[in-house]
Design goal:
Layout (H helix, E strand, L loop, with lengths): L2 H18 L2 E6 L4 H14 L4 E7 L5 H14 L2 E5 L3 E2 L2 H7 L3 E3 L5 E2 L5 E3 L7 E3 L2 H27 L6 H20 L4 H25 L4 H9 L10 H7 L3 E2 L3 H10 L11 E4 L69
Parallel strand pairs: 1-2, 2-3, 3-5, 4-6, 5-9
Antiparallel strand pairs: 1-10, 7-8
Helix pairs in contact: 1-10, 2-3, 3-4, 3-7, 5-6, 7-8
């Protein structure tokens, strides 16, 4: 690595650390036990301040690991913030619930806390944990509509000779007979398992916001049960209705993501989990920790500090001053009231 590149990197890291008075970490990978282990190692070896800022890019992963990562930052730091430059889905949103502040812009995406379950007898294929709930809702609506239509038809065609009670009983019997084969296809054990996993995500979220203070239990409930699909986009405006503190990122954060390149905008393949620290001209972390992944060129992750990512993906907004622990300016459309106020 050239001296010029190292100097540029160090200048940007110094500026971001000074602006936010925080240790900065980068996580672009699935949320799993391996990622939790890697970020734990980096936090242990690089903690120098009372504040942490996590740049998080993920398509989701394990709810247990997400909870552990969020708890790690909550217990090791007095203040914990997350910047989502692009996608931060499902289990990633669970981590965000543990942060006292979120940095988002029009390119940022959160997602519902919808657990993803493996489909039976299918390899590498998943289904939403809300699928059975949605199926029940749809069948309940269909059953009532069928009952109502049969009852009205019996009443009208009898010319008034059939009483309401008789028509209702006949319609109920016919509707249940026709819908029984459909309901018989639902496995109660599977439904119970899916409901349990959704409850796990909800309970994790409630515990995290009790510490972060950045959302209510009702917001957690909406994130688990209130969206129609796993890939529903929760943009900065929607997030401002769910979380108390949603801010636009500063120029320093845009410069960091620009230098990190593709993993700052798409989940890393392979994953990239590093502490963003100063480096010397040899590409080794300036604190000489020797931790794998300290230098993006070192670990072969495909992240290059001179990779020239999408530096111009910023919005015309002034970042708030004073770091993320002080009073700062809310983003447009900022929260007026709180919303409604496994693998994930």
């Amino acid at each position: 690595m050239s001296n010029e590149v190292a100097e540029k990197w160090n200048e940007i890291i110094d500026a971001a650390e000074a602006e936010y008075d925080a240790d900065i970490y980068f996580y672009s990978a699935p949320i799993d036990d391996e990622g939790f282990g890697a970020i734990t190692q980096h936090v242990t070896e690089n903690k120098r301040r009372d504040r942490a800022l996590l740049i998080l890019v993920t398509n989701g992963g394990l709810a247990n690991s997400a909870y552990q990562i969020a708890r790690l930052f909550q217990t090791q730091y007095k203040h914990f913030a997350v910047f989502t430059p692009s996608r931060c889905k499902s289990a990633g949103t669970l981590i965000v619930l543990g942060a006292s502040m979120i940095f988002m812009d029009p390119f940022s995406e959160l997602g519902p806390l919808d657990v993803q379950l493996f489909k039976q007898n299918e390899i590498a294929s998943r289904k939403s944990g809300l699928l059975s709930r949605s199926a029940f809702d749809a069948m309940a609506d269909a059953s009532f509509e069928l009952y109502e239509r049969l009852m009205m038809s019996i009443t009208l065609r009898s010319g008034g000779n059939a009483s309401f009670k008789l028509a209702s009983e006949l319609a109920a019997s016919m509707a249940s007979t026709m819908m029984a084969p459909v309901y018989a296809q639902i496995n109660p054990e599977v439904v119970g398992s899916e409901n349990r996993d959704l409850n796990v995500a909800f309970e994790y979220g409630v515990r995290l916001v009790q510490t972060s203070g950045n959302a209510s239990g009702q917001s957690v409930f909406k994130l688990v049960y209130g969206y129609p699909s796993h890939d529903f986009i929760i943009d900065v405006e929607e997030a401002s209705n769910l979380f108390d503190a949603v801010r636009f990122p500063s120029e320093a954060l845009y410069q960091i993501t620009g230098l990190l390149g593709d993993p700052a905008y798409e989940e890393g393949t392979p994953g990239v989990v590093i502490a963003l620290t100063r480096i010397n001209q040899t590409g080794v972390a300036a604190n000489d920790q020797g931790t794998e992944g300290e230098s993006s060129e070192q670990d072969g992750s495909g992240t290059s500090v001179d990779g020239g990512g999408e530096e111009d993906r910023r919005v015309d907004q002034e970042p708030a001053e004073g770091g993320f622990g002080s009073e700062t300016r809310q983003s447009p459309g900022a929260r007026k009231s709180k919303a409604g106020d496994t693998a994930a």
